Amino acid sequence: VTQFNKSTELFMEYPQLVVGTEAKFLIHLNDLTNFKPVTQGSVAIELVNQSGNKVTASLDKPARDGIFTPDIKFDNTGNYTMTIILNGNQVSDKIVVNNIVVYSSENEIPKNEEEKSSLISFLKEQQWKIDFATEPVTKRKLQSSVPATGEIIAKPELYSKVVSPVGGILLSKNNSNFPRLGSFVSKGTVLLNISPSADASSNIQKIKSDYLLAKSEYERVQNLFDKKAASQKRLDESRFDFESKQASYNSLIDQIKFTENGYAIVSPIDGYIENITVNLGSQITGGQELVTIINPARLILKANVPASKFEDANNSKDASFKIEGYKDELLISSLNGRKISVSSSLNTENRTVPVYFEFGNPQNKIKVGMYAEVFIKTGDRQECISIPESAIIDEDGMHTVYVEVEGEAFEKRILKTGISDGGYIQVFEGLKEGERVVTKGAYQVRLAALSPESAIGQGHVH
Less Cβ around it within 10 Å: N or C end of the chain? Predict the structure, then answer.
C-alpha cells in the first residue's frame, strides 16, 4: 500500500491475511515536510470490517526510524478499513486505508502468477539517506517567455554621487562622526564637515551675500512699482537678477549646511553609503566626488533582448528573473513592479535591445550590479499539466523523469515538454495528472536503475 496523506506518506507491506494466523505489518511512515522517516511518536491502529468486527493494536514508538511493525491477528473474515492514528512531536496524522482483505483459509486466497517487474527498486531506507522528495503532477497556469540576459542597476533618482561644491580640508576634530561604509543615512544627514580654504570661504559668502542683496533689492523695487514709482523694466531686471542669485544659493544650500567651522556636506537622499573616496585630513577640491549613496528600495532590471525577439518584448508587460545567490525565480509584477521603457536604439555589438523594468526590493536582498537570467513574458497564461524543472534529468538529449509507482518502486518516463515558467515546465506527453515524480534524488534513482549495486544503502532489513 502506498498512500499520501495530509502530513505523511504511508508505504505498508503485509502478507495475505488469514483468520487465526498472526501477521506482521511493516508500516513505513515519511514526514512529508522533508521526506525523512518518522523517528518518534506512537500509533494506534484499528481495523473494522463490514460486519463491525474490530481489531486493534498500538505501539508507543517505531521499531526503527520510519518503521512500525505491529503483529495483528484476525478472528473474522471480511473487507476491513484500517485507521492509523499517529501522534508525536515530529508529526501527527490520521491515515485511513481501505480494502484490507482477510480470508478464511489459505485455500481461499486467489492464485496470482507473479510477473517479473520492470520497475526500479529504490527502498525507503535508501531514500531516507539522501536529499529526496516527490511532487504530484498538477495543472498550473504557465506563460511562454523570451529568454534574455540582464543586470540590476540603480534607479537614477535613488542613486547619488555626492561632490563638494568648493575646496577645503577634512579636519579630524570636526569629523568625529565620519561616515561608515554600508551605514544608512537619511536625507539631510550631515556626512562630512569641510573647513574651506580662504578663497572657497569668500566664494561661499559672496554667493550668500549676493543672494540676500538681490532679494532685498527685488523687494524694494517691487514696493516702488506698487506705488508706481518704478518702471516695469526695472522690476523685471531686479526679478531676473534675484532669481539667478537665488538659483545659485539654493543649489549651494541643497548640498551644504553652514557651520561655525565652515560647511557640512549633507545627504541628498535616503540610502546606504556605498563608497567613500576621501579620508580624514584630505585636501578637497571643488567638484571632487566624496561619497556614493544608493537607496535600493526600488531597482531597475535592464534586460538585453535579442533583436529578433524585439516585438515580443515590446508587447510584453511582465518578466521574471533569476539572480546569483537567490534560488527563487522572481516575478516583476509580484515585486510591485512594471515595465518602464524600451530602448529606441539597438546595441550593435551584441544585437540586443535594452528593455527596462522597475521593481521593489524586499529586505534589500537584491544588489545593484548583479547579473540576471531574464524571461520576458509573452502571450496569455494557459492552464496545463506541469512538473518542477528539478524533476527532469537530461538523458541523451531527452527529458526524463522518474515516477513513484509504489513507495519503493519507480518507473522511468520520457517526456514531451513545452514552455517553462517560474521553475515549472509544461508536459505534453509521458505523465498523467496526480502521478508523483521525483523532484530531489532523481539522479540516485537513475543510478539504481543502471546498477542496483551502486545504490545507496543496500538491503531491506525488517
Answer: C
- Of the candidates 146, 139, 141, the one whose C-alpha atom is nearest the C-alpha of residue 387 is 139
The DSSP 8-state label assigned to residue 116 in this structure reads P
Please report, for residues 103, 158, 211, 247, 338, the alpha-carbon distance to residue 250 in angstroms, rounded to integers and kept in the order given. 97, 21, 9, 5, 34
- In this structure, the dihedral spanned by the alpha carbons of residues 207, 210, 211 and 213, taken in order and rounded to 10 degrees, is 160
DSSP 25: -
DSSP-based three-state secondary structure for 459: coil
pLDDT 10s digits, 422-457: 889 999 999 999 999 999 999 999 998 887 554 444
Asked whether the beta carbons of 206 and 230 are under 8 A apart, the reply is no
Element (H, E) at 224: helix 198-226
Q: What share of the chain is helix, strand, coil (3-state, %, to 5)?
A: 20, 45, 35
User: Rounded distance, CA 199 to CA 205, Å?
Assistant: 10
Which residues, at least 6 apart from 165, have a Cβ–Cβ distance to it below 8 Å? Answer: 251, 252, 255, 256, 286, 287
Residue 397 pLDDT level (bands cut at 50, 70, 90): confident
pLDDT digits (tens, 9 = 90+) for 178-207: 999 999 999 988 899 888 766 656 666 777
CA distance 269 to 274: 13
Q: In what helix (H) or strand (E) does residue 225 lie, and over which residues does it extend?
A: helix 198-226
Handedness of CA 141, 144, 147, 152 (dihedral sign): negative
Q: Which of 354, 312, 435, 385 is nearest to 149 (CA)?
A: 354
pLDDT tens digit sequence for 91-142: 999 999 999 999 999 999 888 766 656 889 999 999 999 999 999 999 999 9
Q: Please, which residues bridge with residue 239 across strands?
A: none
Give Cα 394 distance to the centre of its chain: 25
Rounded percentage of the chain residues whose pLDDT exceeds 70? 93
Q: Which among 26, 92, 80, 30 has a CA at the least distance from the CA of 50? A: 80
Classified as helix, coil or strand, 386 is strand
